[in-house]
Hints:
Organism: Gossypium australe
Largest sheet: 2 strands, antiparallel
Structural class: mainly alpha
Radius of gyration: 19 Å
InterPro entries: UPF0114 (IPR005134)
Number of helices: 2
Protein name: Membrane protein
Distance between the termini: 21 Å
Pfam families: UPF0114
Order of helices and strands: EEHH
Number of domains: 1
Amino acid sequence: MHVVACQYNFICTRNDQDVSELKTKLGHVIVMLLLIGFFDKCKKAVVHSTQDLLCFSASVLLSSSCLFLLSKLNGST
């Protein structure tokens, strides 16, 4: 077990960082599975009006922006 200096001048072990990275990667996998299910359901959606199209486009924009923010948060750590 290696002791390394972490952010904010705390001392932590390498194992703590490995567990944190594993939690982050597991969270990404869960989000990706949810998005795959969402887009699978979107293929079956029927658009009858402009309001349906607006709601559909807003949901795609919101889900893609959440995925983008998640990737940016992971890159900053």
